[in-house]
Amino acid sequence: MGSPYKQLTLAERYHIQSLCELDFSACRIGKRIQRSNKTISRELKRGPPNEYSADTAHLDSLQQRKEAAKFHKRAAPVCRQVKALLGLGFTPEQISVRMKLESFGGAISYQTIYSFVRENQWCDLLPRKGKRYKRRKGVEAGAGGRLRSYAALPYSGRIG
Known about the structure:
The chain is mainly α and 160 residues long. Among the domains are: 53 residues; 55 residues. The chain contains 9 helices and no strands. The protein is elongated, with a radius of gyration of 29 Å. GO terms for molecular function: transposase activity. InterPro entries: IS30-like_HTH (IPR025246), Transposase-Integrase (IPR051917). This is Transposase, IS30 family protein.
């Protein structure tokens, strides 16, 4: 299936710049730094033709990451809204639906809210304080347990 996606580092971009100045092809540069030639050709197209600059390409990539939808979900207003709703006793599932209905900064999933809780250590704001639900078992489990205990009694044949 291929290797997982890994973004270029600044050091790799400097390496690309130096090899580009020596008129290496994208294929040869890719083999040198052990990256796909498609990745290298895409990187070389970032700037003006025949003028690749590692610094500007790196700044552009950082800017693209900040403008991504994933980054906006972690913005400060979203975090404040989530913390406020957790403080009111809402569950992450309820917060997710509420923010979707109110269209507050786009949709945010309950999994993302749980990751906020873990990162910021807000477990005490959750309704169960971050503990999982434990199902009760045995006789003390409510009506089912009482019915089983009555069934164990001997039947005398008389009513009343």
